[in-house]
Each structure stands twice: as structure tokens, then as C-alpha cells.
Amino acid sequence: MKNDLQQKINDAGPVLYGACRISPNKKTSWRIDCPDDLFGILLGMTTQIESYNQRHKKSYVRAMKVAMEDGKLIFMTQRKVLCVEKWIGQSRLKIRRHRMPIRDDLLMRARNMQSTALFASRLIPDWKRLMQDELQTLRKILFYAERCAVSRGDWILLSRWFSSILKDAENADHCIDH
Questions:
Q1: pTM, rounded to two decimals
Q2: Can you give the three-state secondary structure of the chain, one letter per residue?
């Protein structure tokens, strides 16, 4: 997440994200590891949890980790509180609903591209910008790319994507053999 968006979320949740402020070394402090387009959802959840923290000063909740992994929100807290867990669950659902049309659009674009247009398109950079934590979506995009790879250069590029982004040496070697 961009620094200015990260700062806005930190400002909205001074108690919730207190560990981020206390960190003696800013280079090693944890960050919210989510794409920028989830800012609104995370800010709404932060506001709800911070409101809880203001009402319950003796049993406040602090975030330990906020990240997107395999397309799912990981929001770890040092204390489990039922209403906070409910808000986190609601945010996970909002994120799934927000990402569903984005995922469908990326896959439809990959399916509909003919020949090597896929290799020169903005599809992979768009995936990287919007949902780089969803490797399964990229795997499907690369499956479509594999179907329409024609030239030696296409296969080399496909191999690079498999090895550099997915860390999938087996499929990368398979592409080189073509």
C-alpha cells in the first residue's frame, strides 16, 4: 500500500496500529501489505475497530499483521473479540465481492485475446497492480497464454513469467522445451 494511504489508515487507528507507531526502527516495522484499491474497505474496518478500542480501553485490540495472501485478507490481532472478528469477516466478504468482477475481467480478457496479443497486452501488469497476491488467477491467465503461444519469443516470455512470478520451474522448463 502506498505510504500516504498507509498513513491515513494508521491515523484512523492509533490504538489498533499502535505497534506500527512504537516500532523503534521504521525500516523493519510492519506494513499493511494490501493493494491500494482495498483502502476504503480497510479504512472502514479500521474505523469500526478503533471505535471499539475507544469504548473499551482495558481490552483494546491491536493489529499484528494485515496482508493479502492467496487472495484472502489476513488480519491478525493480539486479542480475539467477537464483534471485531465479525467486522473482519465482513471486510473479507467485501474484498471477495470487490475482487470477483476484477478477476472475471482479467480472465475474460485473457480468454478472448487472439494469438500473441496477450503477450503485448497490459494484462499481466494489470494483474500485478490489482491482485498480485492471487497467484491462482495468474496461473489461469498463463494457461490461456500457453494456448495461444506461437513464436519462440512467446514461449521464452511465458517461461519467464512462470519462473519469476510463480516460481514454477517445472512449467518454465516445459515452456522452454517448445
A1: 0.82
A2: CCHHHHHHHHHHCCCCCHHHHHCCCCCCCCCCECCHHHHHHHHHHHHHHHHHHHHCHHHCCCEEEEEEECCEEEEEECCCCHHHHHHHHHHHHHHHHHHHHHHHHHHHHHHHCCCCHHHHCCHHHHHHHHHCCCHHHHHHHHHHHHHHCCCHHHHHHHHHHHHHCCCCHHHHHHHHCC
